[in-house]
Input
Amino acid sequence: MLVHRNPTPQPPSRVVVLGSHGFIASRLIRTLPSKGIASRAVASAEVDLTARSAGAKLPRILMSADALVVTSALTPEHGRDRDTFLKNVAMIDTLCAALQHAPCTHVIYLSSDSVYDSRVEMVDEDTPCESNDLYALAHMAREKLLEDACRTAGVPLAIIRPCAVYGAGDTHNSYGPNRFLRTARGEGRIVLFGEGEEERDHIYIDDVIRIIHMSLLRASTGVINAVSGTAVSFHEVAYKIVAALGIPVRIETTPRKVPITHKHFQAAALHEAFPGYVTASLDQGIRKTIAQLSGADTGAFSYPRMIMKELDGAK
Output
């Protein structure tokens, strides 16, 4: 659950974003200026968080009035092995050391829904974090390290755990809407594992950006899941994409290699934190993504009318 330190929305003087080429980071960096918020992207080429030199470089960038959004991570396509785990943990350990020398005003950490016990079908923010997967364990360790460092430095910390994120600009080609759209448009086919029975929650990229933005304005602390609250099967996702594209697409199946599992999220905490906020439906998000991929949409987003007045006061 998030606790808002700002009773009314107040934009930070500047937002430093660790990561610049990733899916979420790149969209956030493009969006912040349109909301009247100055930003500073820090790419790995400038500060490599896995290198010892990063501990000295970061304090020269961070200012005391900055808010910091941490998106830097080696995602699963880089590996789920011991080496990747250690690099992911080392990145945050370096950041934690830098925060002791250059504390900022607020930290937001982009974690992952993989931290939750996969045996739990209905998930909320109180669901135990438990996994044998090294990628998930890395996020658990990173969260704990940041919690300790921010508590010591007196810096408020918000942890956002997104479910599967989709949209134009995806850099991961993850199984689900992103991969399905890519292969449907490029190969004229969608390949499902088994019959695509598994049910998952998917959140549109701009909704994740909105949640980060609103958390920045409120200087929020605590943990929140970035989810739609509606889980659908991969089979249904595939057919929604075919319908939205309006072109011939083959839906193929492959033999199942793992048991069927489902994962649903309750979105009550998100609605309580940001009353009136509604995430895009899967149909809306797919249509928006197709428009952006086709160059027919700028990618700009607007908030639901119910919360526009509150946000307008923060500009």
Notes: The chain has ten helices and 14 strands. Residues 298-309 have pLDDT under 50 and may be disordered. Residues 59 and 101 are 7 Å apart (CA to CA).
